Write the C-alpha cells for this entry.
Amino acid sequence: MLSIPLKKSDPVDLYRPLRYLVARKYSESDAQSVESILETLNKCRSDMVGRGDLSLPMQRDCLIHYFKCLCMVDPLFTAISSDSHSDPIVFVWYDAFYSEHENGVSSQRNSIQLEKAAVLFNLGAIYSQIGASCDRTTALGRHLAMDAFNAAAKFFSELWKVFAKDISATLDLTLLFTETLHHLFSAQASELKLQQQLHDNNNAARSALQQHIIAVSFKSVFENYQRAYDLILSDSAATEHVFSFDRTWITHCYQKMKFFRVEACQRRSSILPKSQLPKTSSLVQSCPLDHDAESVTEKLVSGSCSRADLSIPKVDGIDLDLILSEYSPFKIMEGGKLVANPWDMPPPYPTNFSILSPPSPSSSSSSSSSLILAFPFKKSEPLDFYESLRNYFVLKYSESMAERVEGLLQMLNKLRGEMLRDDLSLPMRRDCLIRYLKCLCMIEPLFPMTTSPNPPIFIWYDAFNPQQDSSQHNIHLEKASVLFNLGALSTHIALSCDLTNTFGQRMAIDALNDASHWFLKLTHEAEKTSATIDLSISCVQMLREILTAQIAELECKFPGSRYISFSAASPV
C-alpha cells in the first residue's frame, strides 16, 4: 500500500495583517470580536507548519480545524487583496514529491485558494499515512486502513473537482495529479475491502450473489488502478515527477493493474444481469465481517460498522473511528480528564460566509434567546462498565483476549463517566458523547450477555420527569439515551449562540439541525427498547417537530441567516 508525503510551507503571520484590516475597515470593537478566531487560525497554521512532534491524528485534527477557520476568514482575503493599505500575505508551498524541482515551489499573494488546496492535499496525505501504518494482517487493521484510504480518496476528489481548477501551483496540485491520487487511494481501499470479502468466504461455498459481488469488486479495483496508471503515463512531466520521487511507484501500479485485470477477466462470467439482482438498497454489507464471528476483534468491528436501518439519512455518522488504533486522536489522561488540543476550544465553524455582518436592528440578546427552547438532559446512575465487560471477556474467551481489548474497555468506562459530567463545556461534552456512542456500537454484538454473572444494568431517568426511570440490561436503552442527550446538547449549543449577528444566527440554525438529526436516529433506536416516555417514538417525533418549527422561525426572523447547512446532512 502506497502513501504520500505532506506538502511543506514557509511560516507566515496571519493574525497581525488580518486584525489590522478588520480594525481599519470596520472598527476596533469588530477586531476584538474576531480576535479568538484569528488567534486560532494563526495557531493552527503555526502547528501545521512547524510542529513535527504531532501524531498523525493530531496533525489531521489540526488541518481540519485550520480549514474551517480558513473558510470563515475567506471574505477577509478578498478584502485584503483590494486594499492598498494592507500588507500582503504571501503563502509559499513546496511540491510534496519533488520540492527541489525548478517548479517545485509556489508563492502567491493573498491566495486563500492555494492555501485551501494545500491543506486539502495534506489531509489526503495524512489519511494515506494512517492507512499505510495500520496492521493489515488483521480484520480490524484492514478495516481501519480501508476507512483511512477512503477518506484520502475523498479529499483528493474534492481537490481535483473543486479546488485544483482555480489555482496555478506546483505539479502535485494539478488536475491530473489530484485525479491520479484519488483513483490510487480508491483502488487501495477497494482492494482491502475485497481482501476481507475473500477472507470471509474462504471456507464456505459462495452463492451466486457472493460470486457476483466479488467479481464486481475485482473489476472496480482494476479500473481504479488502471486509471491511476494511465494518468501518470499520459503526461511526460508527471511521469518524470513520479520517477524522481520513487520510480517503483509506476511498476507497483502496473503490477497491481495487471493482476486485477486477469482476475477480473476470469470472473467476468460471475457478474449477474440486473434482472437477477435482489432489489435492496445495497448489495454489499456495510460491514465486511461475519456477524457470527467468534473473534472478539471481528465482533467489535462488526458492531462499529453495523447499520440499524439503511433508510436512515447520514448512515456514516456512527462508523469505525481510529479509536482502537495507536493513533487514537482522543486522549484521556490520568484521572479521567479529557484533554483538548490548543485548537479544539472554539466551537465548530460554519463555512462560506462573512464573519463580520451588521446586527439585525430588531434583534437583541434577551428577545432572540427566547426563540430557542433547549431540552433537558437525561440523567443516569454511575456504572462500572469495565469490570462487567472484562469479566465477560475472560469467561467467554480468555484472559489474553481480555488483555487485548483492555484499552477499549478502559476508554469506554471513562467516557461513560465523563459524558455525565455537568461541568464540561458543551463542545467537549458533545465530543465525549459521540465517541462513547461509537464505542457502544462496537460492543453491541456482545449483547445480551446471557452467560455473564454480572451483566451491566443501565439506569436512566426521564429527562422531563426525573421521578420516572428505566432499568434494563439492554444496550439499545443506553444508545437511545446517548442519542437523546446528543440532541438535547445541540439545543443547548443553539441557545448559547449570540443571535445579534449573522454568525451566531447560522451557528444556532446549524446546531438545531444537528439536534434534529440525532432525534431522527433516536426514532429508529427507540423501536428496540421500551423505556421512559421521553424515549417513546411519539415523544421523539414531537421534539423533532418543535425543532423544525424553531429552525423555520429563526430563518423567518433572520432572512440573512439562510445558507446551505452542512449539518442537515452531516452532523458537526
Summary: The first strand starts at residue 90 and ends at 94. Residues 280-298, 304-368, 563-572 have pLDDT under 50 and may be disordered. The two ends are 31 Å apart (CA to CA). Residues 56-81 form the longest helix (26 residues).
